[in-house]
Amino acid sequence: MVLQIIGHTDEKGGCPLKTEDLREKLKVYFIMGSTNCLSDPEETLKQACEGGITLFQFREKGTQALKEQQKLNLGGKLKEICHQYSVPFIVNDDIDLAVRLGADGVHIGQEDEPAEKVRKKIGSGILGVSVHTLEEARAAIEQGADYLGIGPIYKTTTKEDAKEVQGVQLLTRLREEGITIPIVGIGGITASNAEAVIKAGADGVSVITAISQADSAKNAAKQLRESVQPL
Ligand SMILES: Cc1ncc(COP(=O)(O)OP(=O)(O)O)c(N)n1
Ligand SMILES: Cc1ncsc1CCOP(=O)(O)O
Ligand SMILES: [Mg+2]
Q1: What are the b/e assignments for 202-226, b being 16+ CB within 10 Å?
Q2: Is 209 assigned a ligand-binding role in the annotation?
Q3: Please, are residues 23 and 48 in contact by the beta-carbon 8 Å criterion?
Q4: Measured in whole angstroms, how far is the alpha carbon of residue 168 from the centre of its chain?
Q5: Contacts made by residues 63-70, CB under 8 angstroms, sequence distance 24+
Q6: Distance between Cα 151 and ligand 3 center (Å)
Q7: What's the domain range around 108?
Q8: Which of 15, 41, 94, 106 gets the highest tally of CB atoms within 10 A of its CB?
Q9: Which ligand is located closest to the Cα atom of residue 109?
Q10: Is 86 designated active site?
């Protein structure tokens, strides 16, 4: 897995984006699968890219989700769109799919394959790990995470098995404890509440609904970018 967009390795030989570049890429992190979109997923992603998203995660999940060849086909098309806009393409959960698609990275949670194992499989690709405690954060970093996903920050209806809403407390705590790795907040985030997430210590915000269900994915992405960027 090789990131073509910014072709250099960082100081620890892991993620091919320098830590500070990855922080920038996390600013407006759009996550989506075919079941999240109001309209055609490819068109939704194109509009989101036009609006200024900085990172994309393909999360094809749920009972109505595409499988096998259809999932592979859609993933391939979405990756192409991302790369036309120099937006790195991340795959959620499915490491084999990520490798087959030549994705720029993967995102895993505590119930997925262990980070250490995934790091070995993806080499220098971007590795994101969801954590819910300080201990999980330390372990993920130890095992090779490039960034952490923290949430749900606010109420979400998108993830059925989401943990309890935690607000921005964990974000604040991690920074107080000296955790400097790039972090993104997730869960119920919109252009109206994104500022609080950044102020608490996140480098960026991850959203599904705020862009995929907006009347205009382009405007929604633009508004999120504006609410995060000037801070
Ligand atoms: C950026 C980001 N943060 C958190 C998650 C959630 O991951 P996980 O807990 O593994 O849950 P699923 O997304 O797999 O349902 C994420 N996907 N992205
Ligand atoms: C994948 C995930 N992980 C924690 S909350 C969440 C869902 C985020 O979706 P939304 O932005 O629609 O609340
Ligand atoms: Mg997962």
Answers
A1: bbbbbbbbbbbebeebbebbbbbbe
A2: yes
A3: no
A4: 18
A5: 64/35, 65/33, 65/34, 65/35, 66/33, 66/34
A6: 13
A7: 19-228
A8: 106
A9: 1
A10: no
Beta strands in 122-203 (DSSP E): 126-131, 147-150, 183-186
- For residue 189, the CA-to-ligand 2 centroid distance in Å is 8
Single out the catalytic residue among 130, 206, 212, 227: 130
| Residues recorded for the chain | 231
Residue 200 within any structural domain of the chain? yes
Please give the share of the chain, as a percent, with pLDDT higher than 70. Answer: 93
Q: Does residue 183 lie within any of the structural domains?
A: yes
Total domain count, the chain: 1
Rg from Cα positions in the chain? 16
Q: 227: annotated binding-site residue?
A: no
Q: Is 180 exposed, middle or buried (0-12, 13-18, 19+ CB in 10 A)?
A: exposed
11 in a structural domain: no
pLDDT digits (tens, 9 = 90+) for 144-181: 999 999 999 999 999 999 999 999 999 999 999 999 99
| 12 in a structural domain | no
Look up 159 and say whether it is catalytic: yes
Q: Is 215 annotated as a binding residue?
A: no
Is residue 100 annotated as a catalytic residue, yes or no?
no
Looking at the CA of 57, which ligand is closest?
Answer: 1
What's the CATH code of the domain at 223?
Answer: 3.20.20.70
Going from the Cα of 4 to the center of ligand 1, the distance in angstroms, rounded, reads: 24
